[in-house]
Amino acid sequence: MDSKLREKLLAAQRNEITECLIYERLAVRTKDEHNRKVIEQIARDERRHYERLAKRTGVEVKPSRVQAALYVAIARLFGLSFGLRLMEKGEDLAVGVYGALETAVPEMGELMADEQRHEEEILGMIEEERITYASSMVLGLNDALVELTGALAGLTLALRDPRLIAITGLITGVAASMSMAASEYLASREDDAGDSGKDPLKSAAYTGTAYIITVAILITPYLLLGNVFVSMAVMLTASILIIASYNFYITTAKNQNFWHRFGEMAVISLGVAAVSFGVGFVVNHVFGADA
To answer: Which residues does 148 contact at the CB level (< 8 Å), separation at least 6?
Structure first.
């Protein structure tokens, strides 16, 4: 075995035992029996991969405990689906290495198939509340972004008083969040009749919470900054970052395309903001609200 091939095999071997350690640690901390069994199955696969590579290289390697601690922390903080999918994205590199080594090491084909199966089949079996209620979070988040970016952009030109804009936005946002939560509760009750599996109160809570958090972030620049136009620029930047962060989270957890979802939400939010800004200009010009 030449030195380059051995080096690649050792890197793959270290990756397998590190991921085995991550899955084992998460399995111990997972209370849901179904999810724990899924994670334990993947851990056994990763250990088997490690052992097969160890036979080929003839040496034992230690896992990266720093990497293991990082992914365990991410999974505990942001949820199993997000943490494990994020880690499996890193396995795309491993699959590429396995593919390159398949000619020299025949069993690499089987290992590569197992790694792909983890992402495509086994991780899809994980059940998690925050992912189940993702549609409720999207409802609150998207409505808050569309309504508040538009309202705040319009108020910026119509009122030109940062504190007044923030207070008006807060009152509007709190009222709208309660309205959206109530609507989601009623909609979920109707869905529950069709066995959606979602609790109406939890759906309402996720929608209302996502809405009010978004409102708080968007009005903050108007409370901290004196210039209304700088505040609006920061608010719009914050809305883009919220859209990007949420879509990165949900597309990673659900294994979906990031750019399509991000682009759609960003265009809608900024489009509404642009129209509302124009309305604010007309209102200010006609009624002289800043006089």
So the answer is: 169, 172, 173, 214, 215, 218, 219
The pTM of the full predicted model, rounded to 2 decimals, is 0.66
Which of 138, 147, 152, 155 has the alpha carbon at shortest distance from 261? 138
Residue-wise pLDDT for 126-179, tens only, equals: 666 666 777 777 778 878 888 888 888 888 877 888 999 999 999 988 998 898
Q: How many CA atoms lie within 13 A of 42 on its CB side?
A: 32
Residue 230, H or E segment: helix 228-254
Tokens of 123: 């991780």
Phi, psi dihedral angles at 197 (to 5 degrees): 85, 5
Stretch 67-75: mean pLDDT: 91
Q: Given CATH 1.10.287, say whether it is the number of domain 3-125.
A: no
Q: Distance between alpha carbon 156 and the CA centroid of its chain, in Å?
A: 31
Encoding tokens for residue 32? 């849901």
Q: What is the pLDDT of residue 256?
A: 78
Domain ranges of the chain: 3-125, 129-287
